[in-house]
Amino acid sequence: MAATYSYRGREIRAEDILFIRRLIAEHPGISRRRLSARLCEAWQWKQANGALRDMVCRGLLLMLHRAGEIELPPVRYTPPNPLARREAPVPVLIDTTPLRDRLSQLQPIGLQQVRRTPEETLFNSLLEQYHYLGYEQPVGEHLKYVAWAQGRPIACLAWSSAPRHLRSRDRYIGWSAEARRRNLRFLAYNTRFLILPWVEVEHMASHLLARVTKRLSSDWECVYHHPIFFVETFVDPERFRGTCYRAANWILLGRTTGRGKDDQTHRPNRSLKQVLGYPITPRFRELLQET
Hints:
alpha+beta; Aminopeptidase; 2 domains; seven-stranded mixed sheet; two-stranded antiparallel sheet; 20% strand; globular
């Protein structure tokens, strides 16, 4: 039987809709949250770390409800959205004395993954104060790194889940739509890279990129229980040249379309970005093309 709907890569057939209707009928008065959890358990719809894909499932149920395929229980409680009313990270006072030295003289340079640690507050504050885009709370899988030298923070790097569709990246990997759906979680996106403005050390940026990419996969696996095979980033050529990425052997894959992921007009509405990528493992194509 042909699929009637598709949501986040999952085909929803007529028998799936009938199953959801029975689930609702068998549990009168069930909350939407519990309904979503029961459906995830029935379908074994889980993340790589074993957690239920609860929020994705809730989106699916809402889509089917709006399409008139199912009748969801009434909303019982709408919790406040902490991201909609997020307060800016509180500024942290640190030593801003200019740091100008040779890279070799600053060693050892510490590199700390601070996600879910007390130092995460420092990371958020530094990005908010000193990155031109400020701090944004990531959604989904992500890691945060702070680099240290002489007891002082000198840089921050943020990594998140990769965009679902990126033409130049997908062409470079050469994967099918099904392989991309299954394996996108093995990619990470460098969303922020900040060298603090008083740090002037030649080759520092490319050095840190090389250091992070060597350990990113194992760190990701520790937190999310799966590795990373390929990383990518965007560079705005109106602001930057991307020199540090090229010095760290990242590859220019192409340019964005300038339309954004939610575009409905098919016309550019933002600046075009360069897309750069870096294979974490030589076997990245073989691993990412598996279906």
